[in-house]
Amino acid sequence: MKNANTTVIITGPPGVGKTTLVHKICLALRDKGRILQGFYTEEVRGEGISQRIGFDVVTLSGKRGILSRENPGDQLRRPKVGKYSVFVRDFESLALPLLGIEDSQPEPDLLVVDEVGKMELLSKRFELAMADLLKEKRTLLVTIPERSTVDLVEQLRKSAGSNIYQVTRSNRNILAGEIIEHITKSLL
After folding, report:
1. In angstroms, rounded to a whole number, what is the distance separating the alpha carbons of residues 27 and 33?
2. 3-state DSSP helix/strand/coil % of the chain, to nearest 5
3. What are the strands of the beta sheet with 162-166, ordered from one edge?
4. Is there a cis peptide before residue 115, judged by omega within 30 degrees of 0?
5. Phi/psi of residue 134, each to 5°?
6. What is the pLDDT of residues 42-100, one digit of tens each?
């Protein structure tokens, strides 16, 4: 059991490649036999069109759920972020179980949360679970928006053991190795 909390934070502007970087890191760590748990968000594009219509939340084990849609087509009133209606309950049902450890599962070496953004933070239960994780001795890989002043994001930035990596178009292809090395050392 490690004796310190390590939080690796990836930040950068929208579309710079934060989620792609998370995928590379997860693939490399799995190849090294590490146990990973968590989720990432993925753009959803309309059939036959290149326009984004929303986002899905996808677990590292491949389960997929709706995070948001531009025009959900139902009559339910949902909170909105910009033009997107956010499916808070769907998000919670998929993401929240991943933030705890089930008795039947081995404790993961790395907990992945992509991302802690406006849509995800519409879930107060998610916000509380993330705040609790900061108090535990865990290794976290988290993505955050570049310019967020939300309390939880600030807590992540300032938490003991946090390391922030700013992703740019010029460094996004070389950061994976540096972050993998940092995470691997933190797990020793």
Report:
1. 10
2. 30, 30, 40
3. 80-81, 84-86, 64-69, 52-59, 36-45, 110-114, 139-145, 6-12, 162-166
4. yes
5. -65, -20
6. 999 887 777 889 999 999 999 999 999 997 777 678 999 999 999 999 999 999 999 97
